[in-house]
Amino acid sequence: MLIKNPKGWELPESKAISESVYLNRRKILQGMAGAGLIASIGSAVPLHRAFADDADPSAKLYPVPLNDRYKVMRELTPEKIATTYNNFYEFGSHKEIYEAAQALKIRPWTVKIDGMVEKEMDIDIDDLLAKMPLEERLYRHRCVEAWSMVVPWSGFPMKELVKLAAPTSSAKYVVMQTFEDKSMAPGQRQFWYPWPYTDGLTIEEATNDLTFMVTGLYGKPLPKQNGAPLRLAAPWKYGFKQVKSIVRFTFTDKRPVSFWETLLGEEYGFWANINPEVPHRRWSQASERDIGTGERIPTLLYNGYGEYVADIYKDMKGERLFM
Ligand SMILES: Nc1nc2c(c(=O)[nH]1)N[C@H]1C(S)=C(S)[C@@H](COP(=O)(O)O)O[C@H]1N2
Ligand SMILES: [Mo]
To answer: Does the annotation list 226 as a binding residue?
Structure first.
């Protein structure tokens, strides 16, 4: 069965696949890779180019070892759904941008690290990937629009990037910026948006164990529509904080004003921590729709990650921590 369907989790009948089934398949796939079987099977199952980029030189790095410290008591969202229902305003202000996003050119890709750091640098994405300890984590993702998913991201802890950057003691924030190129991203011709897409974290948030720089999804390089080649996953915060297709990390002592805060500061603030009891101005945040199962489920404080992050905020007074 596996030999016939190595990518079984993409198939509609496996919508109800459980975490353990995914993990078992993954182990078997890794075993086959070791035995040199993957390539021949892979070529027998051509993938739509929206879901895997054959030209991506990082493809050989995946799958990466699972870090099972982060448990999710929910079904994984089918890959097909997580890669066809997206928010990426650079390619349109609706959910079906996965085809338009294929225009994004992800090589060569240079990441700039600047501001309050020991030494500013420009680093090629493949050099960065080679330096970083890649692992896989199953994370929840909760959009401020009250939908959510659970996916296996691959990537590395953001604290490793902070270590590489070596911020000076005056740095308090790290600002992340998406690429800007109107020729690839039609959304960026909509001049009323404050491009490039920008958001940030405090250094304390960025170096929290949970904070993950994502480079892959479902054991493969990250699809363009999900923010290739590098995006953020800070899963206790709403989805709009998870900057996609990052080209720049700037360390600074000034709190950044994000893309969404610039547009609608009353609704989208800096902290944006998930809290079912703090409604959005226009809707409740008490529950969310799982885009995999279609079910409505209760939203959890800090999206269920309070044990890792609640302490960061315990002495903060007068901050709008939950919007
Ligand atoms: N550059 C950029 N990053 C972005 C967005 C965007 O429009 N542009 N949308 C954000 C929002 S609102 C969400 S919910 C997530 C969606 O990630 P996904 O498409 O991988 O589910 O990306 C976030 N990162
Ligand atoms: Mo979102």
So the answer is: yes
> Nearest ligand to the C-alpha of residue 86?
1
Structure token digits, residue 225: 């529509």
pTM over 0.85: yes
Closest residue by Cα to atom 8, ligand 1, is 88
Calculate the average pLDDT of the chain. 89
Taking the centre of ligand 1 as the mean of its atom positions, its distance from the CA of residue 117, in whole angstroms, is 27
Transcribe 257-312 into DSSP letters.
--HHHHHHTTT--S--B--TTS--SSS--SEEEETTT--EEE--GGGGTHHHHGGG
Distance, CA 261 to ligand 2 centroid (Å)? 13
Block mean pLDDT (10 aa), the chain, length 323: 36 39 57 44 41 76 97 96 98 98 98 98 98 98 98 98 98 99 98 98 98 98 98 99 99 98 97 98 98 98 98 96 97
Nearest 5°: the CA angle 301, 89, 257 is 60
The domains found in the chain, sorted by start residue, are 14-309 (3.90.420.10)
Count other C-beta atoms under 10 Å from residue 313's C-beta. Answer: 17
Ligand number nearest CA of 225 is 1
Q: Which two tokens stand for residue 209?
A: 């164990």
Q: Which residues surround ligand 2, an ion (CB under 5 A)?
A: 87, 143, 239-240
The reply, when asked if residue 89 is annotated as ligand binding, is yes
**96 marked as part of a ligand binding site:** no
